[in-house]
Model the fold of this input.
Amino acid sequence: MERLWGLFQRAQQLSPRSSQTVYQRVEGPRKGHLEEEEEDGEEGAETLAHFCPMELRGPEPLGSRPRQPNLIPWAAAGRRAAPYLVLTALLIFTGAFLLGYVAFRGSCQACGDSVLVVSEDVNYEPDLDFHQGRLYWSDLQAMFLQFLGEGRLEDTIRQTSLRERVAGSAGMAALTQDIRAALSRQKLDHVWTDTHYVGLQFPDPAIGNVTGELVYAHYGRPEDLQDLRARGVDPVGRLLLVRVGVISFAQKVTNAQDFGAQGVLIYPEPADFSQDPPKPSLSSQQAVYGHFPPVASSGLPSIPAQPISADIASRLLRKLKGPVAPQEWQGSLLGSPYHLGPGPRLRLVVNNHRTSTPINNIFGCIEGRSEPDHYVVIGAQRDAWGPGAAKSAVGTAILLELVRTFSSMVSNGFRPRRSLLFISWDGGDFGSVGSTEWLEGYLSVLHLKAVVYVSLDNAVLGDDKFHAKTSPLLTSLIESVLKQVDSPNHSGQTLYEQVVFTNPSWDAEVIRPLPMDSSAYSFTAFVGVPAVEFSFMEDDQAYPFLHTKEDTYENLHKVLQGRLPAVAQAVAQLAGQLLIRLSHDRLLPLDFGRYGDVVLRHIGNLNEFSGDLKARGLTLQWVYSARGDYIRAAEKLRQEIYSSEERDERLTRMYNVRIMRVEFYFLSQYVSPADSPFRHIFMGRGDHTLGALLDHLRLLRSNSSGTPGATSSTGFQESRFRRQLALLTWTLQGAANALSGDVWNIDNNF
Done:
């Protein structure tokens, strides 16, 4: 206390005249703030008349000064208490400062170990006003849900499913005009249409055919064909009968071709679909149609394929001899077990012709205010061979509802940080032709522009289970948003609570890889943009009418037992809140550390063959090293973001650019896009992928000679293995280096 008194005494000695700091409330534009003015004692007599200055003095020796008989008693008390008041004020100020600092750091989404875990806390933008206040996450969420609730999803689904909309048809041309007009009525910055002339396959009397013995190959997966061969039934030169489901049509036919088959017949197995009497089931006379990759170099099969009905498949299965199929391959078409074959020789005839057809993609855009050159893209297929209620009508309805909702939000003060790009795709039933044409046209720049792609295709195929087919980068964000969306069929629960009730490991229950027949697949595997496709499914049963003429609004409504509007609304809420986070958050909520876990899981599979490789003088050490470098690079970026200044826009943009390009880093730069367009080392197709390396390593166990150095056209080949390992390692190491930032920040051994 004596030190404080000394400081005040010295300050009085150095000050030739008294002064006061006057704070006055300011009205008008600066209302609510206090304005500071310095007033001199000599010139501010009028102001000083309003104050009773208190003199601060320390203890004085007795008799040193005459007593002041006129001193007011409360003034004397105030004089004695002043030092204590000053000290108390200092302590309060210090405590308030520290509390404010902690609160500020706690609200920073780019701080702390949670940088890779999406926060549900307030994410505020200082330069964005919503009427008299700022827009916080809770404000945006409430605004979004308010406007979304005003839509008419069910009516749009019904009306769309009733319209003819085969790609290239007159009905599709009319629908295209109507949807563009609907977008033009909304508060969008840009609306336009892209037209592409593409070759589409249509029925034709000209005949293409192959002949071969028939064998049964389950779902036509690589493991199915390997099992078939192991049981003494070789697919080479034969026709394969395979079931619909598990993998796409394109993958089934590609696998058959890789194993030397001549052609493929694909049928719907009744055992794979719901037999619940209250729910409708697929007619036994109905075939299921599918499509193949639109890029010829992507592995478009050269062998013919034909969908057939369950009735035709039943007659063919009865003619098969040979070994009995495994128990898990059995179905319900026969009264006796299925056999693998071979059966009688058949001639497969496919009647198609290729026609140049105009298709139209429709675009609508809300420009971002801070990063307008970075796009969050959401799209839905518009065309369909038949009614296409589940295939494309649901997605189209949700897309239009989201456009209307975000347009209303813009009218009420919302402006996203990044641009929102809404797209209605044409040519989806011919192999996602419309989306692929657009991707090919902007292949050189999209990985620099597109942040994420959200697909609304196949969104409602049931209501029992929820799946998110996605890139690992979006897993944490999906978990966060699931906690914000109510379950459509479990009252009082969020979607997340519904999922963890079934399986505490939510991601094992929800997360699935992107399927090859999804438009989202090309965004990730072809261009290097993270993507997601949501689907509500029936419990352990496929929606029976997908890709058939029976995919009507009535059948979809019956399968969901009247819950179609609620499930479609849940998808719209999920997609919309995902869009808000991706377009509004200052720091992109993409979990760039997740790929380290992905590599670790695959390394566990690779380790199974380490002994076999060591016997041949080979090692996987360089893959392990590259994985370690990626983990360190991700942690380094995490720490950089944590220690950076949140308000520095230049740094924020730099970090966002590095984060949004992570997916692109996993496209192999050592193979040609013309020869291997799906260059992603985890999700792509080709010898450069980790999956191909694992398949090759499995041949070590099935090599007929079993001796080091032995090679054959179908066995393990050391030279091929070395090339595969090099391609994989270089790409993974390149991803680690790119994530590290500038070249002078990289400290890796090559």
Notes: The mean pLDDT is 80. The radius of gyration is 34 Å.
